[in-house]
Structure to design on (600 residues):
């Protein structure tokens, strides 16, 4: 601990210095290193990580600046059951969160953090979510004993010296403490203390648990701050649609993890629509911070500076833009290492290598079976790439606009084999908030749990809302009252299947057909039909040209089965009831009105 005293400190921020000192006393690192964000630092850390095996160098000719990382086998996704909101009052965390008192949280985690960095370096990462100096932005400091975390945070956020300068000697910041400790799942905790603007994460080395700027700060803590300060932090992509006349309209869309946010944000216009001349601009693929602009419009900033995208299923057909983005300066996590130093994953481009090393570090061949006769996957189903947004072919400088982009439409969507039609429009803001609040989706590999199980996931925020979700819905309703130019709210479902389980909708680039209809609705120039659940596209109002859809498929895509909807309403009843009388009355009313419309 001598070095704590000996090291030159790049800031005179007393609160920050004292806190770093205090956390170092707890974790007992051999050394503290303040990250400056320089390229020398990057090289030094990469070299260090290569020497310990934390990173594996990939073929630098084919994949310049790219590395592979393997997590522990038991540490491959977010752990919602080990994620807690620690508030004085249980009701403030709400039934949507696991809860502990702050005292209990600090005490439990302190016992694990104690001495956890012995023999290791504690890195101090100053980072900024959002463009530096923007009124949208928030500064955080993450202390971590993982070089992988430092290198990922370099990509995912603006970080380093400039952030400390912006923070000055008394700026506000979120305090983030992370230690891998012994990566023991029984000693793993992801704790949020919104009342202290603090995050403690211990026992994991996986993305969403440890890149504290992402889900922990930019969603859980930020949603809490947003409510207090009159803005919103949402699990939404942001994209710009440039119309043939050059005008760009921006939309946001909320889907649960691993339901195609990255693909939609990087959409390539399909053949059939290409002649129309649309262009897509990617502003963000995961998180949007929303504020009310001077004209009463909704404005959005992507607080991140990189993508942490799912790999399985990503290829040149499903997401050509992502494939282009990750050709250099990318960290690959938990994929197959091929003999030529390139990487491969299930549903990726080309054939798998004849042999390789799987995500667990074992020799692997395509078609391998385990002892139970099940296929051995080369890549972990939640394997990821981390790449800078600026490398994205559809990158736009608007990403750095300190005032954000104006939002014309909000889209909610889940992964549902049945019930929800391809697209519908809500009647108004209040109804739209209800549409978001009743969202449901099938579980994916992005979180530990039973795959495929349908769960309610309001606004795709169930795992990320840092406070009582009933209060969160009330906040949404309040925001609507303050918006004189509120965006229209839509619901989509790309995942509807037929009786044989076949997807009815081609998805990916063809989703632009639905976006085109949505823009048409925003501008008031396409037709819709009123239904029990909202406005549905009038027959012929969505361009389906050149799609191999039968009339039956089309019918099924837009059909509303009253019985199914009424059944679903019972599940909504149960879910809403868990919020007791904290549930905004307006949402209960919307639900009852829907029931009435379905029954008549
Ligand atoms: O693992 S992350 O939380 O970073 C990604 C996701 O699940 O959306
Ligand atoms: Mn996400």
């Amino acid at each position: 601990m001598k070095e704590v005293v000996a090291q030159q400190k790049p800031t005179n921020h007393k609160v920050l210095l004292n806190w770093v000192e205090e956390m170092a006393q707890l974790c007992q690192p051999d050394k503290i290193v303040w990250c400056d964000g320089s390229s020398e630092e990057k090289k030094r850390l990469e070299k260090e990580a290569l020497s310990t095996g934390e990173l594996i160098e990939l073929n630098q000719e084919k994949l310049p600046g790219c590395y592979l990382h393997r997590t522990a086998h038991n540490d491959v996704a977010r752990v919602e059951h080990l994620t807690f909101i620690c508030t004085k009052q249980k009701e403030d965390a709400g039934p949507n969160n696991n809860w502990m008192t702050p005292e209990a949280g600090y005490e439990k985690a302190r016992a694990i953090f104690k001495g956890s960095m012995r023999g290791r370096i504690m890195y101090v990462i100053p980072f900024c979510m959002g463009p530096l100096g923007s009124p949208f932005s928030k500064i955080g400091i993450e202390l971590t004993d993982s070089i992988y975390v430092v290198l990922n945070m370099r990509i995912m956020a603006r970080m380093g010296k400039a952030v400390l300068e912006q923070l000055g000697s008394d700026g506000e910041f979120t305090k983030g403490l992370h230690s891998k400790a012994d990566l023991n799942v029984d000693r793993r905790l992801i704790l949020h203390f919104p009342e202290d603007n603090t995050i403690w994460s211990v026992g994991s080395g996986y993305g969403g648990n440890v890149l504290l700027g992402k889900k922990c700060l930019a969603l859980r803590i930020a949603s809490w701050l947003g409510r207090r300060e009159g803005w919103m932090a949402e699990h939404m992509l942001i994209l710009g649609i440039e119309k043939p006349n050059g005008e760009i309209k921006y939309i946001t869309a909320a889907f649960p993890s691993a339901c195609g946010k990255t693909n939609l944000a990087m959409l390539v216009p399909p053949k059939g629509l290409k002649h129309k001349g649309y262009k897509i601009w990617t502003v963000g693929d995961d998180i949007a911070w929303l504020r009310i602009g001077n004209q009463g419009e909704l404005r959005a900033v992507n607080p991140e500076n990189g993508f942490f995208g799912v790999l399985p299923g990503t290829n040149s057909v499903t997401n050509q833009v992502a494939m282009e983005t990750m050709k250099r300066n990318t960290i690959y996590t938990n994929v197959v290492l091929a003999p030529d130093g390139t990487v491969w994953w299930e549903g990726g481009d080309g054939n798998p290598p004849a042999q390789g090393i799987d995500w667990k570090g074992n020799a692997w061949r395509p078609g391998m079976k385990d002892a139970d006769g099940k296929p051995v996957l080369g890549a972990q189903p939640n394997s990821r790439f981390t790449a800078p947004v600026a490398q994205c072919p559809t990158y736009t400088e608007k990403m750095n606009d300190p005032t954000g982009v104006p939002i014309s439409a909000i889209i909610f969507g889940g992964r549902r084999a049945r019930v929800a039609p391809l697209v519908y429009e809500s009647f108004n803001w209040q109804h739209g908030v209800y549409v978001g609040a009743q969202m449901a989706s099938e579980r994916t590999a992005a979180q530990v749990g039973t795959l495929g199980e349908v769960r309610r996931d309001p606004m795709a925020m169930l795992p990320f809302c840092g406070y009582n979700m009933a209060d969160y819905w009330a906040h949404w309703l309040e925001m609507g009252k303050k918006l004189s130019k509120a965006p229209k709210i839509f619901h989509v479902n790309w995942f509807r299947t037929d009786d044989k389980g076949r997807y009815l909708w081609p998805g990916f680039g063809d989703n632009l057909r639905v976006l085109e209809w949505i823009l048409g609705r925003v501008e008031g120039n396409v037709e819709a039909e009123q239904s029990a659940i909202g406005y549905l596209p009038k027959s012929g109002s969505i361009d389906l040209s050149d799609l191999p859809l039968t009339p039956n498929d089309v019918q099924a895509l837009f059909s509303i089965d009253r019985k199914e909807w009424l059944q679903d309403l019972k599940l909504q009843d149960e879910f809403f009831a868990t919020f007791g009388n904290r549930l905004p009355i307006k949402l209960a009313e919307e639900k009852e009105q829907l029931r009435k419309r379905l029954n008549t």
